[in-house]
Amino acid sequence: MIEDTAASPLTAVPAPTRLVPRRRPDGRELLATAKGILMAARGCSDAQAFDELLDVSRRHHLTVVGAARNLVDLAAGSPNRRRTPDAVRFDEWAQLLAQLPRRHAHAS
Q1: In Å, how far from its chain's centre is CA 99?
Q2: What positions does the domain ANTAR occupy (predicted)?
């Protein structure tokens, strides 16, 4: 007896995947993230968070985006965070960030 192959279920063959390189966040994304961190940590407004970033960047002779990038790296606890003079300067925020609750990557 001949089997009808048209009625057999077909299994999907996964399409080849392209690896998309991870892009670095742009300045707007870094500023928004850094302001969100400060708003959560300090309970301040968007404008107050931006003013703090601006103040820190002026005190340390950095761009606002540079200050934001270092704050985001510090908050993320990035293991490959560069220990440049700019990064060291942001240890002033380390105590503030230590007070924030940590979220775990796995669900319980």
Answers
A1: 18
A2: 11-72
CB-based contact 53:34 (threshold 8 Å) = yes
pLDDT in tens, 66-92: 999 989 888 887 655 555 555 555 667
Both tokens of 73, joined, read 């790296």
pTM: 0.64
Banded pLDDT at 35 (limits 50, 70, 90): very high
> Which letter, b or e, does each residue of 37-65 get, where b requires 16 or more Cβ atoms within 10 Å of its Cβ?
bbbebeeeeeeebbebbeebbeeeebebb
